[in-house]
Amino acid sequence: MASAGSDLGIENTNIKTATGVTLDEQQKTLVGSVLDLFAGRPSLKKLSLWDDNAVFEDNITIATGRKQFEPQWYGLQTAFSEIERLHHEVVTAGNPIGMDLKTRYVTKGINKEQTIESRVNIFYDKSTGKITKVQDKWGGELPDSSFKNVSIEQLFDPWWWVHYGEGWIWWIWSFTWDTWWWQAMRNLNSVSVPKMVGVPKNDEEDAKRGNQ
Q1: Half-sphere exposure of 152 (CA within 13 A, CB side)
Q2: What is the pLDDT of residues 69-94, one digit of tens each?
């Protein structure tokens, strides 16, 4: 079972839920820890709630296993000067737990501001209390593995292209609407980020970064 949120240093304990949605204590701990991660407040203790083989997936990365997903979270501290959560609400309390999230990011150095609205799904193992997967779906969607599933309306909607184009520019990626390349770049991100972002080796090093 997951440890109590206070023991893990979880800061987000005021979890907002939609009408009729109730979370048990285990779920509150998991949601609070994930909110901390999205706020750029990672720690080894919070990430101990993740299974070693867990997956983090968003529109630009698929990080599998601890060596890949931990740097993704610590990378937020490196990449952004400001992270402001504008809204969150848990909308389903099953497995996965579903949460709507809106966050404002400001990129360090260039002061580029971006607001991301997404649906976050938190999958977990009830027997261990460990997170097995987190999906961060920008605009409620993830890139699909099949080009045929992109609708004609989307292809001819300039705002749809702008939305995805800005996301890639923001992360300094070359944007090409070809599914094979998209998947390749997401996989490359999961491998390259760990080479650029250091993860604390222990709690003492973590504390020196202000993460305890």
Answers
A1: 0
A2: 998 898 888 888 999 999 999 999 99
